[in-house]
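WP5 quarterly update. Target: Amino acid ABC transporter permease. Source organism: Pseudoroseomonas ludipueritiae. Length: 223 aa.
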Amino acid sequence: MNYVFEFGQVFAAWDELLAGALRTLWLSAAAMAIGMVVAVLGALGKTGGPKLLRWVIDAYIELIRNTPFLIQIFVIFFGLPAIGIRLEADQASLLALVVNVSAYGIEIIRAGIESISKGQIEAGRALGLKPLQIFRLVVLKPAIQAIYPALTSQFILLMLNSSVCSAIAASELTGAANDIQARNFRSFEVYFVVTGMYFALSLIFWGIFAMIERTFLRQPATR
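Structure tokens (predicted):
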């Protein structure tokens, strides 16, 4: 084995990798925030909406969960221009990530909502709470507490899936790595460093999620 490792050429382009990592963080965080809103609305429609709306939501969920994420990105980036909708690579990446995570989020949140007993909802009505208050205070928070681990895992997968956006030349971490590798041909070194960066980003997200759980979601100790 005569291969000589040269990580210096990779770290010489550290500013590009850092910019790509920040773009990955931005894409992931924005997709998480928007996707969560869409998922909550979709779960509400699926649990209490009219039959036609439930059918549309079910069709959307099955379509997204049973097709590759790469194809979804291609449809948005290469397919939408055929009907006059043109998006930049980063815009198409954000839209694809939102569409993807929302489908999974709807099912996760629906399961959480349906785990709340009807007795709790009736108690909220008996206290004179309005429907929105019942949903926000009686249903949503306990549901999120129940499904929080599943949601956080899904969000980590979303961040890792953002690497696929490099297929349409989005300016995220893997895209930056591909550009660097194309210049210096140090494939192992480039992708080894990027692997470590994705691992670090995952740990950062896990830390943030754990802090949110401790601060807002953990139930007080009972005696």
